[in-house]
Amino acid sequence: MTIKSKHITAVEHRIARQARCARNRHRSGVLWLTGLSGSGKTTLALGLEHLLFNRGWQVYVLDGDNVRHGLSSDLGFAPKDRTENIRRIGEVAALFADAGLLVLTAFISPYRADRAVARKAARGDFHEIYLQANVAACEERDPKGLYAKARRGEIPDFTGISAPYEAPDRSELTIDTAATTVEHSLAVLHAYVERNFALGDRPVA
Ligand SMILES: Nc1ncnc2c1ncn2[C@@H]1O[C@H](COP(=O)(O)OP(=O)(O)O)[C@@H](O)[C@H]1O
Ligand SMILES: [Mg+2]
Predict the structure, then answer these.
(1) Annotated catalytic, 28?
(2) Quick check: pTM over 0.90?
(3) Rounded Cα–Cα distance for residues 97 and 54 (Å)
(4) What SS3 string covers the chain?
């Protein structure tokens, strides 16, 4: 995105991101969960946050519904609004990562191009995690009754029913949540995080 004012200069932090990560004993970055409604984004993000927090990690979840109450309360679900929603979240997630946190995001984020914008905002520390459950499986779960409402025509632009979902073509990790349990999916995610973000053993206090 272009900056509107010509009179803006970035300030340098006196604390480097590496110093924050060294203190936390883990790298920071963005774990971007994408998938249909009901694919398990919230379940797995909250489960992983809990697990990592209990191990002393600096971790935070940004979730679709929460963000739409505040940061994006002025946006709807038309393509232009979805794009702007994801752009904002991508920037916020990048700031959190800069602050030394591992950020877990749980947004349908149906457009490939929008996820690419979020990836760019995180400048390399971005891991796209595709929760690959098909519409039939998600509709069968329908944890919030949204598919039933969408089928009745009560929700316009519902991803998978009346709005498109563009599956990732370069995700760092894919989990078929329709074929595995929550526990197994969590274990796969946790192993991925340990492999990619852990910085050796914690010093004994
Ligand atoms: N392997 C799995 N991973 C995540 N969720 C699963 C899995 N298997 C079954 N589920 C169930 O699917 C539902 C996913 O809902 P939710 O996490 O709210 O999805 P989303 O946030 O993607 O809309 C939950 O009821 C969860 O218990
Ligand atoms: Mg959710």
Answers:
(1) no
(2) yes
(3) 19
(4) CCCCCCCCCCCCCCCCHHHHHHHHCECCEEEEEECCCCCCHHHHHHHHHHHHHHCCCCEEEEEHHHHHHCCCCCCCCCHHHHHHHHHHHHHHHHHHHHCCCEEEEECCCCCHHHHHHHHHHCCCCEEEEEECCCHHHHHHHCCCCHHHHHHCCCCCCCECCCECCCCCCCCCEEECCCCCCHHHHHHHHHHHHHHHHECCCCCCC
| C-alpha distances in Å from residue 27, one per residue of 22, 23, 97, 138 | 8, 10, 9, 33
Q: Return the structure tokens found at 2.
A: 């272009």
Residue bearing the CA closest to ligand 1, atom 14: 40
Cα 43 to middle of ligand 2, angstroms:
7
Q: How far apart are the first and last CA of the chain?
A: 45
For the stretch 135-184, pLDDT in tens is 999 999 999 999 999 999 999 999 999 999 999 998 999 999 999 999 99
CA separation for the pair 139, 146 (Å, rounded): 9
Point out the catalytic residue in the list 109, 162, 171, 185.
109
